[in-house]
Amino acid sequence: MKKFFFVIFFLKFLTLNSYSEIVYVDINIILNKSNIGKSLNTYLIKIKEEKSKGYKIIEDNLIKKEKSLIAQKNIITKEEFEKQLNSLSQEVNQYRSNKKKLQNEINQIKIENTKKILKILNPIITKYVEENSISLVMPKKNIVVGKKNLDITNKIIKILNDQSLKLDFWMKNIFFIKNDKVYINNILNVLKLKKLKKNYKINDIKELDFADKNDITFFHSKKYIESLKKTKSKLVITNSKFTEIIPNNIKIIEVKNVLLSVGLVTSLFYPSALDDSFDKDVIPINKSKFNKINTGQNVLIGKNVKIGKNCSIGHNSIIERNVVIGENCQIGSNVIIKNTIIGKNSNILDGAVLGKKGFGFFPGKVNTRYPHIGAVIIGDNVEIGSNNTIDRGSLSNTIIGDGTFLDNQVHIAHNVKIGKNCIITGQVGFAGSSTIGDRVMIGGQAGISGHLTIGDNVQIGGGSGVINNIPSNNKVMGYPARNIRNFLRDNKIND
């Protein structure tokens, strides 16, 4: 039954009309070589490393106990020896059982997230079939003989890679291990609310669009009303202003300050995300391990770092933990990168800082930091100018699309999404959670407020202050930014 899974999986989405061709795909290659598949593998490695830290110590102690017991065999009584041997055997069995449970847990995470990737593949393959007059898609493992030109694996990977940058998916916590022991009363306790008699487990905290039924989410602005209507979550953090518009099937946790509460709850799930200190584990780059790259002097590399072939890294640069760099990338001197995935053929100029936490905090008697559990995702053929700072996401990823060029001294805050082939000139600043379309051009020293949507092909003049959404194909300038003809008229400048 298993060998026909993918045939059934794809066939149920296809309509066989007058299509004329049969093609095949290699699912395993897609899962291993696509950007999103590589990210899953990196995530699994990170989980295993984090959760296996104590096992080496336990294993070493068991070996010491075994050697000690063997040494005492002829000294202690037979009864005492057997007693200690039985005790040691129980410890060994428990150790093996715990390791097996850990592996099963990791396997389950892999299965769940592989299913999610396959869900994304569904419409991609279906659309490809419809556009190319294909009659049937077969898994490669079921093909005995097949022409290479019928293998669409690489074409599907390219489409998937193009789309995956816009998908937060499970990737938001790719570098931060989740606490799996969070219950509703843990959440209510940290929010200083009354506990429930029935305590139940909460899987994760996610934004409205990505939350499942066992996740907790939040609602703090009418901007997200459509996402609220579609969310699968059954538990939402909000305040009294919005309780009446929350659907009846969703339980409400009412608080005074939604975002502050979300920060506290996120800390329960991802306590390590609050730590943004320098990476103590960095070491001088091992040139035998990274033998297909060129490096300057004093290059340091942290754990969980992958660098593609034909890359170069300049003097005094530090690649801290949790970084994936694609092939043919140029990393300048004095660059710091962490919690970041960079596509192929990209260029990071001198002095850039990528993947540090953003400026998310809540003022009070004691300022409270907001956890940042997202990553920075940079596409293919991107250029990041000198002294750029790109903050990692808070609950979702910060994303720079393929072919986008950033001039020097650009600042990009957490959760910002910039599309493909954009041109951003010097000293432009983006506040958090704004979304920028494809082929957008922004002049120097412009400022983009938070939680805005700027459409495709928009042009923003230098020095402008953008405080409202801008539909596609518009040219704006001024403060507040408005239609460029109106700006020129108001300032008596000839068009």
Number of helical segments with 4 or more residues: 10
Can you tell me the CATH topology of the largest domain? UDP N-Acetylglucosamine Acyltransferase, domain 1
Q: Strands of the biggest beta sheet: in what spatial order?
A: 7-10-13-16-21-24-27-30-33-35-36
Q: How far is the N terminus from the C terminus?
A: 69 Å
Largest sheet: 11 strands, mixed
Radius of gyration over all CA atoms, rounded: 26 Å
Please explain how this structure is put together.
This protein has ten helices and 36 strands. By secondary structure, the chain is an alpha/beta fold. α3 (about 35-50) runs antiparallel to α5. It folds into three domains: about 1-165, 2-Layer Sandwich (Protein Binding, DinI Protein, Chain A); about 185-275, MurE/MurF, N-terminal domain (Udp-n-acetylmuramoylalanyl-d-glutamate--2,6- Diaminopimelate Ligase, Chain: A, domain 1), CATH 3.40.1390; about 285-490, UDP N-Acetylglucosamine Acyltransferase, domain 1 (3 Solenoid), CATH 2.160.10. Residues about 1-20 have low confidence and may be disordered. The strands form six sheets. It has an eleven-stranded mixed beta sheet. It is globular, with a radius of gyration of 26 Å. A hairpin with a 4-residue loop joins β35 and β36.
Outline the fold blueprint.
Layout lengths: L4 H7 L9 E5 L1 H7 L1 H17 L1 H19 L6 H54 L2 E6 L13 H12 L19 H7 L26 E2 L6 H6 L4 E4 L12 E4 L3 H12 L13 E2 L9 E2 L4 E2 L3 E3 L4 E2 L4 E2 L3 E3 L4 E2 L4 E2 L2 E3 L4 E2 L4 E2 L6 E2 L5 E2 L6 E3 L4 E2 L4 E2 L7 E3 L4 E2 L4 E2 L4 E2 L4 E2 L4 E2 L4 E2 L4 E2 L4 E2 L4 E2 L4 E2 L4 E2 L8 E3 L4 E2 H7 L5
Parallel strand pairs: 1-2, 3-4, 4-5, 7-10, 8-11, 9-12, 10-13, 11-14, 12-15, 13-16, 14-17, 15-20, 16-21, 17-22, 20-23, 21-24, 22-25, 23-26, 24-27, 25-28, 26-29, 27-30, 28-31, 29-32, 30-33, 31-34, 33-35
Antiparallel strand pairs: 6-8, 18-19, 35-36
Helix pairs in contact: 2-3, 2-6, 3-5, 4-5
